[in-house]
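pls design
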């Protein structure tokens, strides 16, 4: 049971970085699977702490980069355009097309909105925000995995 939970958590951590897998969800499922199988108070305390870290990470991964984008003057509509073209890009050029489509979508939306001189700085701000979001989610997943590991060692 610890091995299955550990594999789910490991795949989840990889899934944070690889856009094909629902990373945070897999980490949460692994932790919950472990707590259900162990059935002890200690397991549920560690699982609760790990799930709390994932929840906080999910909130922070949207609020902090979103605030930075608003400060940089990049509107939500630009991010939506990047996301939509990223989805199209994912199917046109598997895996890397997501990033290529996102960058192209943000650039084109900003090109239309502010012109060529300001489009690239806004695109760089959007990329930094996405990178920060990824790092926050990865940190939360790694912290949750560490909490699970400590719990697994103590039960």
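designed seq:
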């Amino acid at each position: 049971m610890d091995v299955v939970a550990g594999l789910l958590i490991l795949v989840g951590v990889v899934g944070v970085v690889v856009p094909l897998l629902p990373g945070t969800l897999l980490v949460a499922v692994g932790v919950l699977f472990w707590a259900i199988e162990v059935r002890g108070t200690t397991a549920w305390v560690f699982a609760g702490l790990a799930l709390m870290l994932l929840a906080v990470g999910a909130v922070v991964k949207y609020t902090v980069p979103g605030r930075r984008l608003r400060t940089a003057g990049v509107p939500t509509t630009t991010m939506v355009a990047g996301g939509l073209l990223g989805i199209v890009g994912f199917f046109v050029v598997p895996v890397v097309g997501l990033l290529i489509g996102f960058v192209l979508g943000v650039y084109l939306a900003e090109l239309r909105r502010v012109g060529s001189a300001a489009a690239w700085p806004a695109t760089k701000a959007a990329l930094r925000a996405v990178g920060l979001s990824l790092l926050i989610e990865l940190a939360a997943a790694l912290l949750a995995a560490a909490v699970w590991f400590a719990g697994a060692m103590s039960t």
